[in-house]
Amino acid sequence: MSETSVQSEQQRNSGSGSLQPLVQVENLKKYFPIMGGVFQRKVGDVKAVDGVSFTINKGESFGLVGESGCGKSTIGRTLLRLNDKTEGSVHFEGKDLHALSKSELRHMRTKMQIVFQDPFSSLNPRIKVGEAIGEALLDHGLVSRKDLKDRVIETMKICGLADYHYDRFPHEFSGGQRQRIGIARALIMDPEFIVADEPVSALDVSIQAQIINLMSDLQREKQLTYLFISHDLSVVEHLCNRVGVMYLGTMMEMAPTDELFSNPLHPYTKALMSAIPVPDPTLKRERIVLQGDIPSPANPPSGCKFHTRCPMASDICKEQVPEYRNMGNEHFVACHFA
Amino acid sequence: MAKELVEFRNLETHFKTSAGTVKAVNDVSFSIREGETLCVVGESGCGKSVTAMSLMQLIESPPGKIVGGEIMFEGKDLLKLSKKDMSRLRGNDIAMIFQEPMSSLNPVFTIGKQIAEPLLHHLGMTHKEAKARVIELITMVGIPRPEKIYDSYPHELSGGMRQRIMIAIALSCNPKLLIADEPTTALDVTIQAQILDLMRDIKSKLNTSIMMITHDLGVVAEMADFVVVMYAGKVIEEAPVLELFKNPQHPYTQGLLKAKPIINQRKERLYSIPGQVPNPVNLGDSCHFHDRCEFCMEICKVKTPPLRAHADGHKTACWLYEEEGKSNERNVGSVGTTAE
Asked: Residue A226 maps to which CATH number?
C-alpha cells in the first residue's frame, strides 16, 4: 500500500508540476429563467451556478462533486459553451470562450470534448457505431474519407473495442462497451480537454473499474486534461488531482485530492464523506447524518447556502455569505468556522 | 440461530424471449431468518430482483414463469396458494419498497390516501382510525408536519421524502418481511444515509426481517447480517456478513470487493474483472463466470459447480474448492482481498 501511494504521489505531482492553466473559470454564473403567469413572463431564476471560480491546469484532472442539483453538470456544459453563460468568463488556452465567433468556436470545439453519463441515450440507435465515432472527424474535415475507417478502428482499439464492432449498432452493446464508444468518440478528435459528466455512474462495479482504468491510462498516454464530474467521492478520489465540492451552485471547498480527503474543512464535505457506505462491516464510524433535503436552487437560503442543514450553523451563517478563502496548501473553503 | 421465515428451495424463474429461454433465476436456494437483514448483491441482470418478485409473485406472465421449486413462508409454500390468499399476504405479511419512489406512488392520490389504502383493505380499519395511524406512520418515518403531508401529492415531495412515504406504506400493516429493492440507488448519498439509518432503526424497533437487494457492497457492509451473492441467475456464494468480507471465497466476490474504489484508500490502479456478464439466453452447463475468471479450469467450462458449505454457514459454488479442482488449489490464496 505504501509503495503504491508513493507512486501515485509522484504521478500526481508530475501531472500538475508544470502548472500551466488550460481552463480558467472566473465568477461564472448561469441562471435559468422560470416562466410563469398567463403571459409566460419571467418570474424568477434558478441559480444553477452562482459565482464559481477555478482553474484547471494542463495534464490535470479536476473533479467536481456534489449532490443532484448542485450545478456541477451545468458548469461542465457552460465550460464547453453548450450553454450560454449569464455572467463571468471562461478562458480556454487564454481565449474567452464565450466571446468567440461561431467559426472560431467551431474550430475550438475539436480541442474540447465531452463524455456523457448515459451511454444508452447518447448514441443514435440508427447509426453504426463506427460511423458515429468518425462523424465529427469527417465533419471537421480532419481526415479524408479514405483514411477515416483506419482512424476509427485505431481509436476503437485504444478504447478496448474490436474492429468487427465497426459495423454494429448501439443496441448490440452492453453499458460498459457503450461508454467505451462514448470515450472513443471524444478521443478521436485528439482533444486536449475532456469533460466527463458522470461517465461511470450508470455502470456496474466490475465494469466501472474497467472504465476508470481506461480513462486514467488515456490521460497518461495522451496528456489529457479532465474535468471529471461525479457524485461519487470515492471515484473522484481515485482519478483526480484536485477536487471541488459544490452545493447549490456554489463552490464550498476546493483542494488537492490528498489534502481534501485527509483534512476536509467544510462541514458539508465532512458530511458527504461520512455518508458514503464503506465496504467493511467491522468498521464503526461516527456518521454525520444531515437533516432535511437540499433546498431549491430557485430560492436558495440566505447567507451561507448550507446553513439550513449544517450541524454547526449559527446566526452569522444566516446573514453573511462566508468568504471563499485560501487556508494554505491551495486549500480553499467557504465557511465562517473553518 | 433464529427461526427461518422464508426459504427458497431450488427456485427456477424463466422468461421466454424470441431469442430463447432466459433462466433469470436458476436453481436458487437460500433462507431468510426472523429479525435478520439479508442482502442479495450482484450486478444488473444477475436475477436478484426477479428472485424478490418471484417471492411476491409479481412476475409478469407471459413472458415470465416460475417453473420449479418452492418458496416457503412460515411453513407454507407460497407457490401453492390461491390468488386470493396470496393477495391477502402481499402488503400485509410481506411488503416491498422499490428503487424509484416517484414511479411507485400514484400521482393523482394524496399521500394520506395511499398510506391508508392497505390499512382499510387489509386491517379493516375505519377511515378515522386509519387517518390516526397514517399520521403516526408519517411521524415514524421522520417527516415533520405529518398533517400537512397527509394532504400533499407525491410531486410536492422530494426523492428522499417519497422513499420515506414508501417505507411508511410498507410498514403500515406491520409486515413480517420487508423487501427493499435498491431502495437508495436513486438517492443522493446524504439522503441515502438518512434512509439507511431509518431502515436500521425500524428493524431494531419492529424486529422485521429485511430482504435487501443492492449492487453496492458498501450498503451491504452497513446493513446486512447475512449476504447472498448472485451471478447470472445463480447463487455463487453466501455467508454471514463479517465472514464474507473477511474471507471471500468465490473469485467473483473477491473481484467485486477489489474493484470498488474506497474512500481514503487510494490505489494506483483499480482491480477490474475482465469481460462482461454473459448473454443470459440459453446458458448451458458451466460455471457462468468461467470466461471472466483467472482461475478457470477445464471442468468450469463444462459442468456447473454445486453450492456447498466449506466453512460454518459459508457456502460457495466454485470448482476451486471441490475435489475435482483440487490441483489448482495452490493459487487460491493469492486472490484473497484481505491482507493476512
From this structure: 3.40.50.300
In a domain, A183, yes or no: yes
Q: Among A156, A190, A224, give the residue marking a domain's end.
A: A190
A206 in B contact zone (CB under 8 Å): yes
Residues A185, A256 within the same domain: no
- Encode B86-124: b = buried (16+ Cβ within 10 Å), e = exposed: beebbbbbbbbbbbebeebbeeeebbbbbbbbbbebbee
Residue A338 counted as domain residue: no
CB of A193 closer than 8 Å to CB of A142: no
Q: What is the C-alpha to C-alpha distance for residues B222 and A15, in angstroms, rounded to an integer? A: 36
Segments forming the whole domain that contains residue A212: 2-111+191-293
Give the minimum alpha-carbon distance from B119 to chain A in angstroms, rounded to a whole number: 28
- Helix orientation angle between A129-139 and A175-187, rounded to the nearest 10 degrees: 20
Cβ of B266 within 8 Å of Cβ of A5? The answer is yes
Q: Are residues A178 and A273 in the same domain?
A: no
Question: What global pTM score does this model have?
Answer: 0.85
Domain count, chain A: 2
Mean pLDDT value across residues A220-242:
92
Alpha carbon of residue B289 to chain centroid = 20
Q: Which residues contact A210 (CB under 8 A, 6 or more apart)?
A: A160, A176, B272, B273, B274
Residues in chain A: 338
Considering the domain architecture, whether residues A222 and A289 belong to the same structural domain is answered as: yes
Q: Which of A138, A173, A190 is the last residue of a domain?
A: A190
In B, minimum Cα distance to A172 occurs at B279
pLDDT at A168 over 80: yes
Q: Is B294 on the interface with A (CB under 8 A)?
A: no
Which B residues 191-210 touch A at CB under 8 Å? 191-194, 196-197
For residue A195 the three cell numbers come to 469533460
Put simply, whether A284 touches B (Cβ < 8 Å) is: no
Residues A172 and A239 placed together within one structural domain of the fold: no
Sign of CA dihedral A9, A14, A19, A23: negative
A216 touches chain B (CB under 8 A): yes
Measure the CA–CA gap between B266 and A8, rounded to whole angstroms: 9
Edge-to-edge strands of the sheet including A193-197? Answer: A112-115, A193-197, A225-230, A61-65, A242-247, A250-256, A332-334, A324-326
Q: In the prediction, which pLDDT does A3 show?
A: 44
Within-domain flag for A54 = yes
Any idea what DSSP says for residue B90? Answer: B
* Residue A132 counted as domain residue: yes
Question: Do A26 and A77 share a domain, yes or no?
Answer: yes
C-alpha to C-alpha distance for B331 and A135, rounded to whole angstroms: 47
Q: Please say if the pLDDT value at position A5 is more than 70.
A: no
Rounded Cα gap, residues B295 and B20, in angstroms: 30
Q: Sign of the C-alpha dihedral, residues B76, B232, B166, B220?
A: positive
Do residues A329 and A259 make contact, with C-beta atoms less than 8 angstroms apart? yes
Per-residue pLDDT of chain B (340 residues; tens, 9 = 90+): 578 899 999 999 999 988 888 899 999 999 999 999 999 999 888 899 999 999 998 888 888 899 999 999 998 899 999 989 998 888 889 999 988 877 889 999 999 999 999 999 888 899 999 999 999 999 988 888 899 999 999 998 888 889 899 999 999 988 999 999 998 888 888 888 888 988 998 888 888 999 999 999 999 999 999 999 999 999 999 999 999 999 999 999 999 999 888 888 877 788 888 888 888 887 888 999 999 998 999 899 899 999 999 878 899 999 998 876 665 544 444 444 433 3
Q: Is the domain of A221 the same as that of A174? A: no
Looking at the structure, tell me whether residues A136 and A24 fall in a common domain: no
